[in-house]
C-alpha cells in the first residue's frame, strides 16, 4: 500500500502531538519531513522522520510530499496555507486559520485555485461523545431544539507570551465553541452577546485579553445558546455539552479515567476530569487526521473546511465587538454562513 507522504510545519506541543499521531496511529501516512525554527532533532530522528529542517522550504520544495500539516503559531496560518497551496500540497491546518476574515478568504481562494484540499483542526467534530450528541440532535431525539450549553474551562492559564500572540480568548479559545454550536445545532449563528472579565490573572488583562467569558447566542433556527469559558478550573479540563428541546434533554458530561463513584462517610467521590486537552481529546485528534488522510486517498471533500473556520472567526469577531460595545451584535445570513454545520 502506497502511503500518503506528509510534511509537518511547526513542532511545538500541538505539532509534536500531530506528528506522533501520524507516525504511531495512521499507517496510511508517512511523515517525510518536519520543519520548525527550534526543531528538536533527537525527537524527530527518534520518530524515524528522514528530513528535518528549520526552514519551511524543506517541506514546500519537496515534490514527493503530497500534504502538509500546519501547526505553526496561529498568526502565520493563512500565510502558510497560501504557500502550501502554491506548492500544490493538500493542507491540514490547526485553528484558527486567521484572526481576520480577509486573510482567511485569501487562503480559501488560494486553496481553491490550486485545487488542493484544506481541512481545519476543529477536533471536537471527531470526538465520539460530541458526535453522538450531534447525531441525536439532528435525528430529532430532543425534538425541537430550544437551547444548547457549552462549558469550556481550562485547568490553568496559558503563559502570558502565548496570550499576547493568541489573538485573544474569543479567537483562540472560544473559537472551538462557536464551531461546536454550529456543529451540534445544524444552524447558523444570528446574534451574539458576550460579557468578559479578568478574574484569574491580572497579567492577562495587562496583555489586552480576558480570562472569563459568558457568551449568549441566538441561532437561525430560533434556539438560544450559552457558552461558558474560563482559563482556570482547578479540578481539571472541564468540557460539558447540553442540548435541550421539546422532547427532553441530552447531556455529555466530562470524561473521567473511570466511572466509579465512592460513597463513603466523608462524602461522595468520583475521578477528576483530564488535566489537558491533549488527554481529553486524544481519540479525536487521531480521528481528524485519519479523516484527512482518508479524504485525500479516496479523493473526497474534507468534512471540516476553511469555510467552517471562517464562520467561527466571524462569530469570534462579533463576540469581541459585543463585549467592547456592551451590546448584542447581529450576524446577517451572508456573514454568518460559512461551511458545513454537519
Chain-wise SSE layout:
Elements lengths: L3 E6 L3 H13 L3 E7 L5 H6 L4 E3 L3 H4 L6 E4 L6 H10 L3 E4 L7 H14 L3 E3 L7 H11 L6 E9 L6 H6 L3 H4 L2 H11 L3 E9 L4 H5 L5 E8 L4 E7 L7 E8 L2 E5 L8 E4 L2 E4 L6 H4 L1 H17 L7 H20 L3 E2 L2 H4 L6
Parallel strand pairs: 1-2, 1-4, 2-3, 4-5, 5-6, 7-10
Antiparallel strand pairs: 7-11, 8-9, 8-15, 9-10, 11-12, 13-14
Helix pairs in contact: 1-12, 4-5, 5-13, 6-9, 9-13
Instruction: Find the count of extended strands (DSSP E, 2+ residues).
Output: 15
Query: What is the CATH domain class of the largest domain?
Result: Alpha Beta
Class derived from helix and strand content: alpha/beta
How many separate helices? 14
Mean pLDDT over all positions? 95
Please give the domain count.
Answer: 2
CATH topology of the largest domain: Dihydrodipicolinate Reductase, domain 2
Quick recap:
Helices cover 38% and strands 24% of the residues.
Tell me what you see in this structure.
With 342 residues, the chain is α/β, with parallel strands linked by helices. The chain folds into two domains: 4-116, Rossmann fold (3-Layer(aba) Sandwich); 125-275 and 306-336, Dihydrodipicolinate Reductase, domain 2 (2-Layer Sandwich), CATH 3.30.360.10. 38% of the residues lie in helices and 24% in strands. The chain contains 14 helices and 15 strands. The protein has helices at 13-25, 41-46, 57-60, 77-86, 101-114, 128-138, 160-165, 169-172, 175-185, 202-206, 277-280, 282-298, 306-325, 333-336, and strands at 4-9, 29-35, 51-53, 67-70, 90-93, 118-120, 145-153, 189-197, 212-219, 224-230, 238-245, 248-252, 261-264, 267-270, 329-330. Strands 12-11-7-10-9-8-15 form a seven-stranded mixed beta sheet. Strand 4 (67-70), helix 4 (77-86) and strand 5 form a beta-alpha-beta unit. The mean pLDDT is 95.
Amino acid at each position: 500500500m502506497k502511503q500518503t507522504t506528509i510534511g509537518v510545519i511547526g513542532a511545538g506541543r500541538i505539532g509534536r502531538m500531530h506528528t506522533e499521531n501520524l507516525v504511531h496511529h495512521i499507517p496510511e501516512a508517512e511523515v517525510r519531513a518536519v520543519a520548525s525554527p527550534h526543531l528538536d532533532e533527537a525527537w524527530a530522528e527518534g520518530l524515524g522522520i528522514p528530513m528535518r529542517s528549520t526552514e519551511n522550504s524543506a517541506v514546500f520544495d519537496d515534490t514527493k510530499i503530497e500534504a502538509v500539516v500546519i501547526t505553526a503559531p496561529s498568526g502565520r496560518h493563512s500565510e502558510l496555507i497560501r504557500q502550501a497551496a502554491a506548492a500544490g500540497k493538500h493542507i491540514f491546518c490547526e485553528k484558527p486559520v486567521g484572526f481576520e476574515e480577509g486573510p482567511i478568504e485569501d487562503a480559501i481562494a488560494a486553496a481553491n485555485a490550486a485545487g488542493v484540499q484544506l481541512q481545519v483542526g476543529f477536533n471536537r467534530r471527531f470526538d465520539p461523545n460530541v458526535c453522538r450528541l450531534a447525531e441525536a440532535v439532528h435525528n430529532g431525539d430532543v425534538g425541537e431544539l430550544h437551547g444548547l450549553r457549552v462549558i469550556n474551562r481550562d485547568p490553568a492559564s496559558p503563559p502570558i507570551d502565548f496570550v499576547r500572540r493568541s489573538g485573544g480568548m474569543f479567537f483562540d479559545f472560544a473559537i472551538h465553541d462557536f464551531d461546536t454550536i454550529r456543529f451540534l445545532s445544524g444552524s447558523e449563528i444570528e446574534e451574539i452577546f458576550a460579557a468578559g472579565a479578568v478574574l484569574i490573572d491580572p497579567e492577562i488583562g495587562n496583555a489586552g485579553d480576558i480570562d472569563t467569558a459568558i457568551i449568549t447566542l441566538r441561532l437561525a433556527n430560533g434556539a438560544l445558546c450559552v457558552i461558558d469559558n474560563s482559563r482556570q478550573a482547578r479540578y481539571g479540563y472541564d468540557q460539558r455539552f447540553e442540548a435541550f428541546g421539546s422532547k427532553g434533554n441530552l447531556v455529555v458530561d466530562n470524561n473521567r479515567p473511570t466511572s466509579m463513584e465512592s460513597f463513603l462517610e466523608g462524602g461522595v467521590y468520583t475521578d477528576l476530569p483530564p488535566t489537558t486537552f491533549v488527554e481529553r481529546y486524544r481519540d479525536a485528534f487521531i480521528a481528524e487526521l485519519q479523516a484527512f488522510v482518508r479524504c485525500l486517498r479516496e479523493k473526497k471533500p474534507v468534512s471540516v473546511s476553511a469555510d467552517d473556520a471562517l464562520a467561527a472567526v466571524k462569530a469570534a469577531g462579533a463576540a469581541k465587538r459585543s463585549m467592547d460595545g456592551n451590546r448584542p451584535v447581529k450576524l446577517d445570513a451572508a456573514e454568518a454562513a460559512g461551511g458545513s454545520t454537519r
